[in-house]
Amino acid sequence: MLVRVASAACLLLSANAFAQNDGLISEESAATARELMERGLDSDIGYEVVRSLTTEVGPRLAGSEQEARARDWAVQMFTELGFENVRVEPFDMPYWNRGEIDLRIVEPFPQNLFATALGGSAATPQNGLEREIAFFDSFEDLRDAPDDGSLQDHIVYVNDRMISVQTGAGYGPANRKRQFAWLEAEARGAAGVIIRSVGTDSHRFPHTGMMSTPSARSVSVGSHSQIVIDYLESEHPDYETSNVRSSIPAVAVSAPDADQIERIHALGETLTVELSAVAGWRGVRQSGNVIAEIPGRELPDEIVLIGAHLDSWDEATGAVDDGAGVGIVTGAAQLIGQLPRAPRRTIRVVLFGAEEVGLLGAFAYARQNASDVGNIILASESDFGAGPVWSLTSGTSDEGTLFLDEVQSIIAPLGIIRGDRANNGGGPDIIPLAMQGVPVFRLTQDGTDYFDLHHTPDDTFDKIDPDDFAQNVAAWAAVVWLAADSDVEFRMQDE
Amino acid sequence: MLVRVASAACLLLSANAFAQNDGLISEESAATARELMERGLDSDIGYEVVRSLTTEVGPRLAGSEQEARARDWAVQMFTELGFENVRVEPFDMPYWNRGEIDLRIVEPFPQNLFATALGGSAATPQNGLEREIAFFDSFEDLRDAPDDGSLQDHIVYVNDRMISVQTGAGYGPANRKRQFAWLEAEARGAAGVIIRSVGTDSHRFPHTGMMSTPSARSVSVGSHSQIVIDYLESEHPDYETSNVRSSIPAVAVSAPDADQIERIHALGETLTVELSAVAGWRGVRQSGNVIAEIPGRELPDEIVLIGAHLDSWDEATGAVDDGAGVGIVTGAAQLIGQLPRAPRRTIRVVLFGAEEVGLLGAFAYARQNASDVGNIILASESDFGAGPVWSLTSGTSDEGTLFLDEVQSIIAPLGIIRGDRANNGGGPDIIPLAMQGVPVFRLTQDGTDYFDLHHTPDDTFDKIDPDDFAQNVAAWAAVVWLAADSDVEFRMQDE
């Protein structure tokens, strides 16, 4: 990345010579964007924000004391960096935690496996479960399996692999087993479920992540978990969709451990495993969204909302997921806040709580700020690690699309092309806003390696490349500035 | 590696055209060596041996039931592959095991750390230890610290880093803290010791490994732990050298956790940690060496001894340490055993037990076979992973050196140069034999990445590159064949 950033910096120096101002972006505003890009490539403020969060708070599971500490940290951080209107918007949420887990092969070749509970997993009975494995090559094989009682007294194992794709497009297909294997296993009377981790690495780290439990979302937002409800209605019409929680333990094993299960299965051996887990739901706790602003100089009621999520899974310090996003959007906004002249519109930074466990902060934000949602003229989240940005996508009005075409030409020296001009959601925590018609953009990052670390204990600060990180800050600072300093109508008229 | 192996195979096909036979190696023997190299590049027998060991036995801690299963596995494997004189030579050993460990930062920023006990570590008191950290940048800083009582009621932390070197030369300097920090800490009244893992990766795996406890070796072999005794005599002349064991817990943290400790220390904060460990010595258990032979056709009493170690640490399946060595020497010997004509001398394969805990199998072998040691005309061990061989080194008579110069010219197409012609020990388990004058060689592997995995839970079968592995088998088959099929005197006359 060093080479690209270095050449980008050189291009920036001469960029004014080539600037074409076709009217939607003023020359003054464009010049400021270029200045912000140069400062972004040089600034370490955002990077130091991630260092501070991952060091001084560490892991911050949604609803935990550590997440509460993260909110205190964020309030102090925003205040010290000169943001205005710094506030916390708390909300209640159902609390799940992991606790200890033990998984070992009992027969035919006794050995321990590296496993972790999936979010929403139930505990095993106190003395654990010892069961034969029912091996499925894929989630589809499990879904299509007959309910003939053959899974009674078994633990289901689902083996399919995730592929590494720059866009992260391998995640959706691979993630179906994490989301729904428990439902299919439980419906067939299985005692538990084990999946090959949803990840692209070959290290001995299991990947956690939430099972799709409508209850996790419905407590705070009613029935927003549409994907789960749709699935249940089409596949399991007899389920109660109002408060479905897994009654069986569901765990992921690391890729090398999944390979081990696969090799033993390939020998034609029957595997028996012993599983002991204490994971479970623990009542209601508090989470919260932390909000900070740079008030607009002319149109303060119009808001460019940029976000990231403050919570992380509990086994790592959440550096790439989503400490990086916190640092990128904060670092970019801070650079804009340092300018002698504020942008015309308000920039609102939202650090969402409880993203990992079902976008709870995002839905709480949309609910708690319902009267204000119409004032959000553009929104985006950074939540895909710290790899370099390579594409600007957007879902806005036609005028907004043309404007963002121009924006892309300004950030092109950072190595960023123009991507899709159709709504792609703006990031996980933006979904509830986008569902209400809020225009969105994304600065799409290279996620080739993202799922090596995603939801593992290995998601730590050392994994962030400072140069790639700085390129993100530079891009965000420019795009956010240009949108906030404009009066372009990104919202669609018919919404 | 594919490219190199492919080009090596092409070279082999035409190698006869360039072969120079200057007398020590017969043309017939050289032709057989070349044939073995081609077969080695194509054979998957050795690779499948590693797959079988790591899958069907898994982890195999010295003295454990799993190590006993590994001996049964080895006997069956050697027998099925057609080896002769397959036997186990058992020996008693002191047994240490790890058990659970918990390490967390209590102040200033509460969070869990990923740690593992070092081999030989004592347990903490049952309720754990909560102590301030005494931070040392390096082992030397600790060693040179005054004994002024300032470490009383502290847990010592030693931070220095290992560098990655192709030869593995970074291990010795970095390993001093693993070997001796407990001694220095204990001597100054500290309650425990934590080290940055001895490793070159940046993953969340702590690296275990034996502390230097003379007792571990002295039980079976008297006082062979000369390095420890030398150190004690020069630095701590008042120590009882006959049975020194750590009375304090000693643990390693992963590199990212060490970074975390370092960052918090750099903020000027006092760290308090809570450590709970149950590791300790558990009496006497049995280990054993497994031996198999290809009897020589003319000089059966003269032995070319090749080895690897059968035990592994308990947290992984020991694929690169030392399943790879087991597969490489077995695969090479099996290829020789398949030839229509046996070599002149006997090839003896020794899979040593209890290497990790102090070369106990190696010392037991030398003791139990004392009358036979003089018949070993050349010895070597493969115990440095599965990276490609790049150098042939040796420590033999002058005639042996000239012979091995010729051998190198035959294996050169595999990408192997001639290295040092002075005794470099032949591999860890060969040390006791080399100390008695047994001539040695090594096929030096590329260890650039070896210490990424070494002694971590991540040492699993998927980490072995089949092409690199095959190059090892090819090189071993050729060298061992040529030495065993010759009547060259490798032994030095004055020994």
Note down, in words, how this protein is organized.
Two copies of one chain form a homodimer. Chain A is an alpha/beta fold. In chain A, helix 2 packs antiparallel against helix 15, helix 10 (319-337) packs across helix 15 and helix 12 (398-411) packs across helix 15 (466-484). Chain A has helices at 2-18, 27-42, 45-57, 65-80, 139-143, 171-187, 214-221, 226-235, 255-266, 319-337, 360-368, 398-411, 431-434, 450-453, 466-484; strands at 84-97, 101-107, 111-113, 115-117, 129-136, 154-158, 192-196, 250-253, 272-277, 280-294, 299-309, 345-352, 376-381, 389-395, 417-418, 440-445. Chain A is built from 15 helices and 16 strands. In chain A, strands 3-2-9-5-6-7-8-4 form an eight-stranded mixed sheet, sandwiched between helices. Helix content of chain A is 37%, strand content 22%.
**For the CA atoms, what is the radius of gyration of chain A?**
23 Å
Query: Of all protein chain pairs, which has the greatest interface, and how many residues does each chain bring to it?
Result: A-B, 34 and 34 residues
What is the 3D form of chain A?
elongated
Give the fraction of residues assigned to helices of chain A.
Answer: 25-40%
The count of helical stretches of chain A stands at 15
Low-confidence parts of chain A, pLDDT < 50 over ≥5 residues? 1-11, 13-19, 215-225
For the secondary structure, the number of strands of chain A is: 16
Name the beta content range of chain A: 15-25%
Instruction: Report the major sheet of chain A.
Output: 8 strands, mixed
How is the quaternary structure best described? homodimer
Mean pLDDT of chain A: 90
